[in-house]
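Thread: quick sanity check before group meeting

JM: Hey all, I'm pulling together slides for Thursday and realized we never actually wrote out the predicted structure for the chain we discussed last week. Dropping the sequence here so it's in one place. If anyone has concerns about the input, flag it before I start.
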Amino acid sequence: MKIILVTGGSGLVGRAIQSVIEHDRREDEKWIFVGSKDADLCDKESTRKLFDQHRPTHVIHLAAMVGGLFHNMSHNLDFLVNI
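JM (edit): ok, ran it. Output follows.
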């Protein structure tokens, strides 16, 4: 079974993917959508706990700083999570 973890699952793109998946889900897939309330991805231990809890086989990383697409594009942001 594929376990797909979507970070930023409560954001614009995450919600759009969730909507598509609700209508076209495959039986061999489990989709997990998480938001900032579920884990602090800037914190190594919080991230490790999230991955230990869900054991994803695939990750779609959409998490971004709150403020929207244009805010993030206008700020030269780099995120690095060491796992």
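AS: nice. The first helix runs from residue 12 to 23. Residues 2-74 form one domain.
JM: adding both to the slides.
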